[in-house]
Amino acid sequence: xxxxxxxxxxxxxxxxxxxxxxxxxxxxxxxxxxxxxxxxxxxxxxxxxxxxxxxxxxxxxxxxxxxxxxxxxxxxxxxxxxxxxxxxxxxxxxxxxxxxxxxxxxxxxxxxxxxxxxxxxxxxxxxxxxxxxxxxxxxxxxxxxxxxxxxxxxxxxxxxxxxxxxxxxxxxxxxxxxxxxxxxxxxxxxxxxxxxxxxxxxxxxxxxxxxxxxxxxxxxxxxxxxxxxxxxxxxxxxxxxxxxxxxxxxxxxxxxxxxxxx
Length: 262
What we know:
Blueprint: E1 7-11, H1 16-27, E2 31-36, H2 39-51, E3 56-60, H3 66-80, E4 85-88, H4 104-132, E5 135-140, H5 153-168, H6 172-176, E6 178-185, H7 191-199, H8 202-214, H9 220-232, E7 240-243, E8 250-252
Parallel strand pairs: 1-2, 1-4, 2-3, 4-5, 5-6, 6-7
Antiparallel strand pairs: 7-8
Helix pairs in contact: 1-2, 1-9, 3-4, 4-5, 7-8
């Protein structure tokens, strides 16, 4: 799909991967709707796009709330005339204390935002794209969705769910001309790293900072590049891309899709 003159919607667009993707899509000529729960961050992304001559608008959204997601997609259609590209990117981590020591109030929002938010976004996004005759969805998963992640099992479970949810939507390419893929990055240099340190106790904070200094962090712009590749490459649907700093990116072999009940 060509990005020029298309309408794109990015959740979690106020910072990190979401902001990098919003700026890249605007630079490619898309009108961009920035969705974020943090209004100041989202409006700053819109300002950065507008100052470079791009078209953008902000909508506040809690992706865990159905009414918010429905209104966000409607906003994109009302503001720019439709929806062609959706990047379900918003996500959070559990933080400290770790599962199972953490109370459910700590990790339940991770399920709501990371998995329910992607499913809700796709639900309403697909309806809007059907009205346009097709579109592209790119979900932000994680390396933690491809392998167990002992530091945050609930986060890993949500990202694994995003990977298989993505794979399960592969048939939409033939049925509705809608392609759904996902990116699975390692550790990205985003504000989420700071939030992780906030939740940790002093001993854990020092350990996290020590590990971060030894891990090659992925620039969010690199993930934005791959989102754009997924949009352009009309051959890919239901696929997951593994991204690790310093290593070649690769498409992951996923189980085949069961298309009907057994």
